[in-house]
């Protein structure tokens, strides 16, 4: 990958071959392609054989690199730029589950075949997995490997995107004092629309004097933390016998560090521990994802609404989104695939966000009921929007308050 820093140096926009294409959001027609929707410009002819497609992806994180890899795999006529701050020095872990190979598998540091939640009374509900595996990876290792793998076809420009100005034919970006131009911009550096809420977290990687939990179980939600009118839980992963990742998650601001200390002391009964690494952040949560395209600027990643409201998990959804965008470009000459979402998935997101605003305490009961009655693979597939129809109906059957909420929604 060719890297440039435009922070204090003069930089001229790269030469482009002229494009005759135009795009107007007033002339979009809908087509379908497999499990996603293609937004197509009915007026625009295909790219000519002598034209080069200029694409800029803002950001240098997971969603940006996944999309870069997917686009380069399907087209040879792309000139691709990654624009944003350097990802060097970022240190955090992310988790996901899958029943198939993924681009993240080489950087996995721990895996489990059983997941669990613990209710407010300390009862643990375990869900053995037959199809899926639950994985955790170090993101910085994955980013380093992917950045090196992209090679010379990608130009990385280090700087801050200060403005994006689209029109019917192209998009202009201001990076520092300099201007860049592209046919399409995929924006992962910003939240494209105001979210309905934020999922906030603080995670500690902790060394402990002796094992404090079952090494074969990923505890993905533990509700033994003070809720204070919010939906909160603790996430506990045993990385080794004496090293754990413990993370406190909330949807309203709170003192995460105090809650983590209370969990380590009162729930895990630890008198001593050492925090060797920490991570924190906030994930935007949307009742409905933002519009897919905003006049040649396409939001991707969590800023584009890909984090699942009930869990905050996003990386496998970002991977599938990148593959669908690339397939749209390959098959339809338009890189604007919008993931198709089943009605039950949409309704479950609406229900969760509505509960956050009205009675967050019900969410603990909802998730506890699902873990008690629904097989682990079916539940995880539903949360990842990959469930069969039968599994979707099984989940819907055990959601407490679901029918009453639907009736009130229909009445309003």
Brief account:
The protein has helices at 62-74, 139-150, 256-267, 315-332, 343-358, 361-373, 376-383, 389-397, 402-411; strands at 2-5, 28-33, 36-41, 53-58, 78-84, 93-98, 108-112, 114-118, 124-128, 133-138, 154-158, 161-166, 171-175, 178-182, 184-187, 197-207, 218-222, 233-240, 243-250, 274-285, 297-299, 337-339. The chain is of the alpha/beta class and 412 residues long.
What keyword list fits this structure?
412 residues; alpha/beta; FAD/NAD(P)-binding domain; 3 domains; seven-stranded mixed beta sheet
SSE map:
Blueprint: E1 2-5, E2 28-33, E3 36-41, E4 53-58, H1 62-74, E5 78-84, E6 93-98, E7 108-112, E8 114-118, E9 124-128, E10 133-138, H2 139-150, E11 154-158, E12 161-166, E13 171-175, E14 178-182, E15 184-187, E16 197-207, E17 218-222, E18 233-240, E19 243-250, H3 256-267, E20 274-285, E21 297-299, H4 315-332, E22 337-339, H5 343-358, H6 361-373, H7 376-383, H8 389-397, H9 402-411
Parallel strand pairs: 1-11, 4-5, 4-15, 5-11, 8-17, 15-21
Antiparallel strand pairs: 2-3, 3-22, 6-10, 7-10, 8-9, 12-13, 13-14, 16-19, 16-20, 17-18, 18-19
Helix pairs in contact: 1-2, 1-4, 7-8
């Amino acid at each position: 990958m060719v890297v440039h820093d435009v922070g204090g140096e003069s930089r001229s926009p790269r030469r482009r071959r002229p494009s005759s294409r135009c795009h107007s959001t007033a002339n979009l027609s809908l087509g379908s392609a497999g499990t996603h929707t293609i937004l197509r410009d009915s007026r625009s002819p295909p790219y000519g054989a002598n034209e080069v497609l200029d694409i800029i992806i803002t950001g240098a994180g997971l969603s940006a690199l996944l999309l870069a890899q997917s686009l380069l795999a399907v087209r040879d006529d792309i000139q691709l730029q990654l624009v944003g701050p350097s990802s060097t020095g970022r240190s955090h872990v992310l988790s996901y589950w899958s029943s198939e190979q993924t681009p993240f598998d080489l950087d996995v540091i721990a895996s489990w075949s059983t997941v669990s939640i613990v209710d407010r009374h300390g009862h643990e509900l375990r869900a053995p997995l037959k199809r899926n595996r639950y994985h955790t990876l170090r993101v910085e290792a994955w980013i380093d490997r992917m950045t090196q793998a992209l090679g010379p076809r990608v130009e990385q420009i280090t700087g801050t995107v200060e403005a994006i100005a689209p029109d019917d034919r192209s998009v202009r970006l201001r990076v520092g004092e300099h201007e860049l131009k592209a046919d399409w911009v995929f924006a992962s550096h910003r939240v494209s629309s105001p979210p309905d809420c934020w999922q906030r977290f603080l995670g500690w990687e902790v060394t402990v004097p002796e094992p404090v939990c079952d090494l074969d179980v990923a505890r993905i939600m533990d509700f033994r933390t003070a809720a204070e009118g919010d939906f909160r839980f603790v996430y506990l992963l045993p990385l080794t016998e004496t090293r754990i990742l413990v993370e406190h998650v909330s949807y309203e601001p709170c003192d995460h560090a105090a809650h983590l200390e209370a969990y380590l002391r009162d729930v895990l009964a630890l008198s001593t521990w050492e925090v060797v690494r920490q991570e924190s952040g906030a994930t935007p949560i949307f009742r409905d994802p933002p519009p897919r395209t905003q006049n040649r600027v396409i939001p991707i990643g969590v800023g584009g609404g890909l984090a699942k409201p009930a869990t905050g998990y996003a990386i496998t959804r970002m991977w599938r989104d990148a593959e669908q965008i690339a397939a749209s470009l390959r098959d339809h000459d338009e890189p604007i695939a919008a993931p198709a979402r089943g009605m039950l998935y949409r309704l479950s997101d609406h229900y969760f966000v509505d509960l956050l605003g009205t009675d967050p305490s019900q969410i603990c009961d909802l998730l506890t009921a699902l873990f008690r009655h629904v097989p682990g693979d079916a539940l995880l597939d539903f949360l990842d929007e990959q469930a069969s129809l039968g599994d979707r109906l099984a989940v819907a059957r055990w959601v407490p308050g679901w029918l009453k909420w639907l009736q009130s929604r229909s009445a309003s």
